[in-house]
Amino acid sequence: SVIGGTVNIESPLVIVVEHVGEDTVLAAIQRLLDRAQTEKPAMALMADRVAAWFVAGLLLVALIVGGYWWLLQPAQAFWIVLSILVVTCPCALSLATPIALTVATGALTRNGMLTTRGHALETLARATDIVFDKTGTLTYGRLALERVLITNHQDETEIRTIASALEQGSEHPLARALSHVTTEKFVATDIVATPGQGISGTVNGVSYRIGERAFALGLSTKVFETATPVPGCSEVVLANHDGIVARFWLRDILRPEAVEAVAAMAGLGIQVHLLSGDDTAAVRAVATELGVSHFQARQQPQDKLAYLKALQSNGAVVAMVGDGVNDAPVLAGAQVSIAMGSGTQLAQASADMVLLSEYLTRLPEAVVVARRTLGIIRQNFAWAILYNLVALPLAAMGFIAPWMAAIGMSGSSLIVVLNALRLAKNSSKEVQKAG
């Protein structure tokens, strides 16, 4: 192989090209950025409307002032009208919002937070509550099989192979853990995945279900005793028409920065919630470690969405962070949604922002940047309005020459741009203070 013009002999490489052109990850990121830039947030739309009315009013004022000076001193009328039109050009007013959003979006992208919709920053700045999924979001989502309990006469290797066959096509972290528990292979047919609950299918002519306990036992009419949880583990049940075949307990690892990120969010005045489809013991263990008092276990996609709607009905502005297919409905329902970079394509397509770096402390940093962005936009608006209130009367009275008006207009726009560039500064210190 040839790399950079050099023949690679000692360590030949095998390169597999999976996607090209518009199908690559880079092209997908570019499309998301393009979408964000074409979608204007509410403040930008308001600025456009204000600028349109401002221009109409300015032309009317210029006409009145020009008529007045034409009757009073015709020789002065032209340059005074010219000064009015130049000095009050709505450049600063029009730049107030887009320049701030562009700088903030660029700063977040460099930190691994991709903004895919125009309203995301404005809404994130007003967020009062944040809802986290557990597996793959607060945890790594790389579960390890901790314990297996076989409840019938079948061999453990056979049971593991059946579980692996059923989970082979699923993208859920639980499925990925079970699909690699054995090197032997069975072929599963008639596979149907139920988001948030599990998978059903047929292996060697026998119908099975694997996943959440109530879902798996849906094939059997028998009554089973309540499961004894394993602390810190999530339970997955494999069952057929005869009942439970096996129980699997899997353990996940909490992301090391999760505690810091949750504490920082609380320090910023944002209420943290944890929703998960896992059993109560596993979810409670994570919530306790994170210091989260609002948590719900065994949540189906519709349950998560109902919880979200309940928060919103009480006036909360909710940010949702998730990664899986079962998170897509609640991501779409939140005022602002954030998908993990390693999450499913459906989750990312439903989200307003994508955490490419997957480093959770970028979330409170994004909140700080969003709040600073709104502050900068308000400052820019205030400056543009104050500047015009001062410059217009002076120009109308003939105190500002055209060349002075050009300098004033350019200086006003430059101040707006320089003020927005302050958003490029690192916000981690403010997050540390909040946490």
How does this model look, in words?
The chain has 17 helices and 15 strands. The longest helix is centred in the last third of the chain and has 35 residues, at 362-396. The protein has helices at 25-38, 42-72, 74-87, 91-110, 120-125, 134-138, 156-167, 173-178, 213-216, 258-267, 280-290, 301-313, 328-333, 345-350, 362-396, 402-421, 428-434; strands at 2-3, 6-7, 113-115, 129-133, 144-150, 188-194, 198-203, 206-211, 233-240, 243-251, 271-275, 294-296, 318-322, 336-340, 353-355. 51% of the residues lie in helices and 17% in strands. Helix 2 (42-72) runs antiparallel to helix 3, helix 10 packs parallel to helix 15 (362-396) and helix 10 crosses helix 17. Mean pLDDT is 78; it is low at 1-5. It starts with a strand and ends with a helix. It has 435 residues and is of the alpha/beta class. It has a seven-stranded mixed sheet, with helices on both faces. The chain has a six-stranded antiparallel sheet with strand order 5-10-9-8-7-6, sandwiched between helices.
Number of strands: 15
How would you sum up the global shape? elongated
Q: Please report the distance between the alpha carbons of the first and last residues.
A: 51 Å
| Average residue-wise pLDDT | 78
Beta-strand content: 15-25%
* Physical arrangement of strands within the biggest beta sheet: 3-15-14-13-4-11-12
Number of helices: 17
Q: What is the radius of gyration?
A: 29 Å
| Major sheet summary line | 7 strands, mixed
Uncertain regions: pLDDT < 50 for 5+ in a row? 1-5
Helix content: 40-55%
Helix/strand-derived category reads alpha/beta
